[in-house]
DNA sequence: TCAGGGACTTGACAATAACCCT
DNA sequence: AGGGTTATTGTCAAGTCCCTGA
């Protein structure tokens, strides 16, 4: 019911960054801040200030502390970005829509009282934020306040997340978990290897907190038992958690791991085969690392055999060297080290064996005639194939798009030929084909379980050999070994090429990359052959072909996310983001200073950096005309930002994937004035930052910190937000309560990053169903209360609705029932609220790409939450490299 | 400095699998 | 047991950023 809407709305401001304010108490302060702009849009107030303190260089230490103290801007190291509000964007679910406004609704978080209470316990206490409605939070940020100059503000608080969250998931989780437990535990083992763990972790000295926390023994005992995961370590922890645990575990594991790996290696090399399947991912990671090290020395020289370019990734390191700040270096260095791999710069592997790619099966004509002007038309298999692609898309939104239909027609017509009976799309009726397709689908559905299973096994058998690669002796999963099948291009947003035929790819278009000594994969299509074979060990792709829609682009086949190659770069990404922690204060101070620079380029860089930092905007590369018209920070157009006095900026534009970004944010006055200046005299359609592009911006960022680019801010802000929220909000409670805390933090990050999803078609139906159930329960409750009164007076219970007599219960029994019913209602209300809240928010993207898994793993260890409650199987595999972090790890 | 090639990450959504409820 | 959900996995489009050559 009613509630629904509320949720997000707030979007407004997500308060992301809580910057300082947050302080503990804060709770409400936010409210006060709210100031929403006139329209109500969002409030935004962020508060944070950036600069201030500036501490000098960044030392790491500070960081963490989010806690309360920070309040002041300066000081804090913490600093988070300000983000404030933003967020949100809620945008309508539909992304497309444009709604002008900000959407932010009034928010109100609503929540039924009851609900809240519960949650509250957990969170609320904390700091504040939680409680606050998103909107509020959002607003909160407004820091600006500061007037002039710099000051960055603190953030506001945060989040808000509605309490309710807990959602059902909880339940599920619990169930699930068990099984998985094992998994996790295993994972943890392996990883541990000293390697990683040790290195980084340390860093954080800061975190004392955590350690202290130490688990409350209490919790553990009770509920969850679930020893799962953590178990191993735990024991250690108790004592002093940190050190020991890390040390010990690692060791054992390591050794074992290594051993295995080695063996594997031996075998593997020559043939792909199965050998290793066994090797657990984690192990491989380690091992690989080891091997890599060796390679390291090589460095550049390794040219790869092939032509191709050089290396790229290594750059980070190099840069580092350059970097100036000494102080920081220390940290930096650590980080770098960690990744053993990266070391070498270019070389990505020494030996690489795989079986190439698998092609989609040839088209099987169905012979169903479509109609043209009401009459059946015979089509050749080629023509029919494309007609079927179109017919099948009947109930998608693409059918409403003229561009889609036009592009389709142009390509299909080429296949039909000029003189074909079919002379236009308008008179075509694809329904017979559509119906045939539906029937096929139905038919498949009707197959017995055994038949389905058999089919599946057959397919798996065929694909098995393509699924694996052996990299430096370790068997790794290949990510996308299937060549993309032909189809109609489904560009997002208003893509000028949507509907065009994406033709079938032939072996002669595919370049294979493989180890020099490895056997060249046999071409699966008889009589055909690969375009080219390369032996380039400076790249990680196994194969590529040119995108048929845009021949300038390539489609690559890479290893899966669980591979050590990917894991390593993932880790490097997070280390770089962590490094930013040490520089952020100075960076903020610097850009704040340049808000008023006379040098317009400098001024634009400052404001753009500020927006990227505060709102987590993407860099915004230039785009071609044959792509959808979307923008990022550097490509914002004049009309995408609307200044609203005194100091609010209303953003409205289509970002990546044509997802709408809408947000009203209070900014520092100098920023506001700078935007006015940049807009002056420009017409709509003109670049707001006309002196800027991503390469200039990134070149500038690199001067501030080695390896720094615009996207690092997103990673940094996402991870630091999670880390701080988890540490601030996790109070006691059982595992379910803690998971709720995690989800709230996760949601906050998703809002900051504007990760949206479309509302499911059945959403409203589901909500009303829940509402009904709650109403029913409330009726029950009422009756119980009546009966209780009567029972106390010695009277028999009232008749039930259907007139039947009820069993006589004691007042105690009735009270118990009432309590149970209340609990049920509260839970349902919470679930509902959560559902509504998450209706348009996608949590997965940030979990996969922006949140340092070590934050999650360490938190799970500290709070005895089984890691599999947070990470599913694929994430556990992907983040195998993070499983052995020290429980004290802080981002 | 710039355009463009190239490699890799990020992202929403579709397809499936796993669950849950009646 | 069936049907609707929800969670997970797969797909592939759309970004970011690097590097080179002119």
UniProtKB/TrEMBL annotation:
Keywords: Coiled coil, DNA-binding, Isomerase, Nucleus, Phosphoprotein, Topoisomerase. It is an enzyme of class 5 (isomerase). It is found in: Nucleus. CDD domains: Topo_IB_C. Residues 77-97, 238-247 have a biased composition (Low complexity). PROSITE patterns: TOPO_IB_1, TOPO_IB_2. It comes from the Eukaryota. It holds the Pfam family Topo_C_assoc. InterPro entries: DNA_brk_join_enz (IPR011010), DNA_topo_DNA_db_N_dom1 (IPR013034), DNA_topo_DNA_db_N_dom2 (IPR013030), TopoI (IPR001631), TopoI_C_dom (IPR025834), TopoI_cat_a-hlx-sub_euk (IPR014711), TopoI_cat_a/b-sub_euk (IPR014727), TopoI_cat_euk (IPR013500). Its EC number is 5.6.2.1. One of its GO terms (biological process) is DNA topological change. GO terms for molecular function: DNA binding; DNA topoisomerase type I (single strand cut, ATP-independent) activity. Residues 199-226 have a biased composition (Basic and acidic residues). Residues 488-864 form the DNA topoisomerase I eukaryotic-type domain. The active site is at residue 850. It catalyses: ATP-independent breakage of single-stranded DNA, followed by passage and rejoining. Residues 1-13 have a biased composition (Acidic residues). Belongs to the type IB topoisomerase family. Releases the supercoiling and torsional tension of DNA introduced during the DNA replication and transcription by transiently cleaving and rejoining one strand of the DNA duplex. Introduces a single-strand break via transesterification at the specific target site 5'-[CT]CCTTp site in duplex DNA. The scissile phosphodiester is attacked by the catalytic tyrosine of the enzyme, resulting in the formation of a DNA-(3'-phosphotyrosyl)-enzyme intermediate and the expulsion of a 5'-OH DNA strand. The free DNA strand then undergoes passage around the unbroken strand thus removing DNA supercoils. This is DNA topoisomerase I.
